[in-house]
Amino acid sequence: MSDLQNEVSELERKSATAARLFDIRRIIGGLFVLYGVIVTIAGITASDADLKKAENININLWTGLGMLALGLFFLVWLKLRPTAPPTPDE
Amino acid sequence: MQSPTITLAAGLRLPTNGLDYAILAIYFVVVLGIGFAARRSVKTSLDFFLSGRSLPAWVTGLAFVAANLGATEILGMAATGAQYGVAVVHWYWIGAIPAMVFLGLVMMPFYYRSKVRSVPEFLLQRFDKSAHLLSSILFAFAAILIAGVNLYALSIVVEALLGWPQWVAIVVAGAFVLAYITIGGLSSAIYNEVLQFFVILAALIPICIIGLKRVGGWGGMTDSLKSQHGDNFMSAWGGTGIGDANPLGANWLTIILGLGFVLSFGYWTTNFAEVQRALSAKNLSAAQRTPLIAAFPKIFIVFLVMIPGMVAAVLVPKIGGAGSDLTYNDAIPYLMQELLPNGVLGIAVTGLLAAFMAGMAANVSSFNTVFTYDIWAKYVKTDKPDGYYLKFGRLITAIGVVASVGTAFIASSFSNIMGYLQTLFSFFNVPMFVVFIIGMFWKRASMKSGVWGLLAGTTAAMLNYFWIYKQGVIDIPTDQGANFVSAIVGFVAGAVVMIVVTLFTAPKPEAELAGLVYGTTAPGLEEPPAEGDSAWYRKPALLGWGAIVLAALCYLPYSL
Predict the structure, then answer these.
(1) Does A46 touch chain B (CB under 8 A)?
(2) pLDDT tens digits for B304-314?
(3) Which of B162, B211, B260, B373 has fewest C-beta within 10 Å?
(4) The CATH number of B18-429+533-558 is which of 1.20.1270.360, 3.30.1300.10, 3.40.50.300, 1.20.1730.10?
(5) Closest-approach residue (CA) in chain A for B27
(6) How far, in Å, CA of A33 to CA of A45, rounded?
(7) CA closest to A40 among chain B residues
């Protein structure tokens, strides 16, 4: 192996990302559930002017529900397939 | 105020309220939170610059597509849709997918297995120091330039839509990007890109749905546009025969060779801001799948930018012309103002700002890697312990952000110079692909052929653009068409010069080429396949060819 490959392999062995980095699914799930709830409420309480502006589609309601569903999908995925615990030094 | 990329009409101020600002504020808090939470995973320079080469493929894949989905791209492609109609699909289905698949299936094994940490580092391994230093320095400059232009474009949009003064937007966005990349490194940048990807979808989908309803659905829109602009507006290839006139100013040959082959392959396979995402994947299979997973959303994103552009063209028939205040770039902001009620409006504003920041962050997080590993550690302070380069990396990240902020301020006073510089730098990318492809497939290509190929290709592309086209030696209808032709010229010139130089100079010793060139093997670099990677839906070949077939099928309704 070349010097570069040895150097990078060494750094890979010392790397902490795999062991310590949190799972992004938790963040996406949390943020989209929160956004979903906020926007859905805005949809439930939509004014006539809001509806008229959006061509009589209650876009806040539908977008909110969509975001909520996406957020829940990520949380359920995380629950069903949690991050594999890092294997100890191979 | 003129910008090289974006100008927005006055009078586009959005009717934002507290709800929208709350949604925006939550996003900014999460962005910073990701940076701080990623901090504890940064132990080595490899963690900081390449996430320790340990991320899963779906994360790097979505980051790969999001790094390209900056706001200049979103607003720019909607503008292209408003101006040229369905022809905008070329930038996606032929101008991106084949190159992304080629990167994943053909080039990634060389990139990932050789353990290079950047695109210029591959050139150092394959060719010599002159090719390496040239491409490192040019990349570092270009990355800061593009980051600054992104920041400036953000400030114009924010000023028009929200009413913040430009300097406030530049400083605030710069500070947030500075914080989350300096603290959390590439992991933080990539995680934020994944988040931005979904927020952008949540912003664009409602605009498309309401927009289509406003103009009478797809059928109604098609009828209006055909009666205004003619049938070719709704066709991908209509009017692109050689010698035919069309608004794009390009024919099918220059579209396929110039855009689809040279420009697209140059961008997607050798631009480190993209390739870096794949290099941070956890193993070779994940690295190969990074651009392939990205290809599928990429195929469909074109609808989310094309539809708003075309809806705007129906609603404001004079858009981009003398009879209207609105320019083509105003398409999406105009629809946000016209169609979105508070709530979804906040999501859309958040998505747009997130896309601007991600576009900037992708450039800064690739700049710091090249500057640290390729310039500082190889030519200035060699052989320091790893901790030194980690510290230096954080410092240069901060310096890079400050330089981008400076560039943004310069752009706001001298926008013509910036536009010129952007054009100039775009020519340095042209020969990158030819140097890579010859380097990867021809063992004999000599050490010196790399740098000469780069120089010759760049020079030829520039000569073609600035002299033959701009001076009118041959007649090409538009800048766009001239760009495609210049790319082809640069590619051919680079290839010829590489072959000629190779014939007269020494090849690289074969032992040093192991694992870098097709047909060589590097013992000790084969990794055992990870568990689960043999599942059919993780097979790179199936994903890659699936994307190609899907993109080809997408062309059918717009070609017959």
Answers:
(1) yes
(2) 999 999 999 99
(3) B162
(4) 1.20.1730.10
(5) A31
(6) 18
(7) B343
